[in-house]
Amino acid sequence: MRKFYRRISEKKTSTIVGLLLAEVLIVFFVCACGNNLKEDNKVIDGITNETMVESNPDFVKAQELYIANKCISCHGTDLSGRVGANSNLQKVGNKLTAEQIQNQIKNGGGGMYPYKDKLTEEEVILLTNWLRSKK
C-alpha cells in the first residue's frame, strides 16, 4: 500500500514540477517576444513615430510652417542642424519642455531670429507640439 501512495505522490510531484516549468517557459517567451513595443518607442504595433507624425494633420501643418518660414536653412530638412549643435532638433522633445520650445520660437536667441511677429499663437503651438514629438 505504501508503494502505491508513494507512486501517486511521485506522479503528483512530477506533474507539479512539469507545470511549473511550463509556466516559467511561457512567461519567458511572452516577456522575450514582447508586443512590438520597442524600448526607444519607435515602433508600436507596427506603427512608427514617423507614421504617426505624417498622419497627424496638425503635424503636417507644422511641417508646412517649418518649410514656409525657412527654418530649413538653419535646422536642415531632417532637423539635424546646419549651424552648430544647438540647431539640431532631431531629439528636441527630450531636451526641452513645451514652454521652452515656445519661448525659443517666439523670442529667438542663440543665433535664432524671433518669430513672435511672424507667427500666430496657433502656429507657434503647432510647431511646438510637432517639435515635442521629436524624441
From TrEMBL:
SUPFAM superfamilies in UniProt: Cytochrome c (SSF46626)
Residue intervals passing through the bilayer: 12-30
Assigned keywords, A-Z: Heme, Iron, Membrane, Metal-binding, Transmembrane, Transmembrane helix
Domain of life, per lineage: Bacteria
InterPro entries for this protein: Cyt_c-like_dom (IPR009056), Cyt_c-like_dom_sf (IPR036909)
Coiled coil ranges: none
Keyword Iron listed: yes
Domain Cytochrome c: 57-135
Name under which the protein is recorded: Cytochrome c
Organism listed in the record: Paenibacillus alba
Taxonomic placement: Bacteria, Bacillati, Bacillota, Bacilli, Bacillales
